[in-house]
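Homework help thread (please don't just give me the answer)

Our assignment gives two proteins as sequence + structure token strings and asks us to describe the second one. The first is just a warm-up. Here they are:
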Amino acid sequence: MEKRYSQMTPHELNTEIASLSEKARKAEQHGIINELAVLERKIAMAKAYLLNPEDFTPGETYRVEGFEDGFIISYVNGVFAWGYRTSAPDQEEALPISVLREQKQA
């Protein structure tokens, strides 16, 4: 039986990320887009467990990896940040903290 990411050590998580990254590379080479998307989400989840949720501040705006819009955190629950994208302030969503990047200061 496989372990949950929350039960893995940092070493096990890094090994899992490396394995998933190799599978994602192969899926991309073979043009299997659906599998690639699933593997990318698994990688993001595993990376989230390597981060400290306390480093993400409610009320702050972060950039979402791969997107231009910002994400305002309402609260953090485990490795998920709940909040709103600046482009859709009426739709609450949860994102793994690993896909959030600090906004560049102007």
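The one we have to describe:
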Amino acid sequence: MRTVLLTGPGGSGRSTVAAATALTAAREGARTLVVSADPQDTLGAALGTRTGPAPTPVAPGLTALRPDPDDGFRAELLAAQDHTRAALDLLGAERLDDEELTALPGAAELAVLRTLRDIADGTHGTYDTVVVDLPAAPRALALLALPEQLRRYLRRLLPPERQAARALRPMLGRLAGVPVPAASLYEAAARWDARLAAAQAVIEAPDTSVRLVAEPGPAGADAVAAAVTGLALHGLRLDAVVANRVVPDPDGDTPWLAALRAQQHKALAEWETAYATHRVPHLGQDPRGADDLAALGLPAPGPAPAPVDWPVTDALAEESLLIWTIPLPGAVRDDLGLIRRGDELVVTVGPFRRIVPLPSALRRCTVTGAALRDGTLRIRFTPDPDLWPRTR
């Protein structure tokens, strides 16, 4: 299943581009699903058909879906309450009722994760192509990183290996005289982990990539540069940059239009040098319906780009070093932070942070330096003589 995730700065026309991309894919014969969690239904406005939480056919081969964050939030919270019943009873907590629950900020983003999970297990049907209209960056990048982060939290708070002692819990509780976590709590954690893993599998699948949508210009260029850095840090593949609302080249420009076109051309030249770039013309109006979307000329998703690689280079023979290479295009030294915590490395680049486990060979080494050059971070590791296998 080919999955394209679209994000970009706010107001860049992401929903319209998502609708046009999905329509092209469907017209080329792919069974296509387009998803958006925007409560204003901008996706439906672009398609000319209202969308909602039930899959809605909008054109031959094209289905639209807009999950309801309120219903999903209530269902997930009530399910979590049921799974942790024993712990809540121990605390004397009063149960929450369905009628008193309202969605909290971020519920729309969580609805997207639930939808990705449901797409993976076929709840909404079987599709060849899925186009997902994500929130604006960097919120979208935080959302895409969330399953990995939450699974890490679950492993730290409720390590799965502790479940091996479940038969001893009642006896330990009586001997120690203190409450011991019930088996249901670990079972609930396992269910949450499985759900997060399903969403993470879609995000990290070989056929998944990200398209950035932005208007060419100074603000759009800055937003794209920051998003590209965030994508690289989280190991997400950039499919293309969609330059939206490109002003045509008429005769006899007015001064203000000539200045706008000059700004756009400068950004376009930079993007087309660095990325696969699709130009989308400004129609002079907000696109509405299939004819307007087709006039944008957006291509259907092609093959996904190659995975982002973080190789470890063996330089032991020459320099007694192992070098971990991490591509971070656009990163600058002043915005970079590195902290080692046990067998993990905390990497911070501007507003983005990721905690990654060290490859097995590097866990037996100490960090002896790092250098950022030409958008590539190289971290040097020296084998720890107390941990590294000795040679004769």
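TA reply:
I won't write it for you, but here's a hint about the kind of observation we're looking for: Residues 287 and 293 are 6 Å apart (CA to CA).
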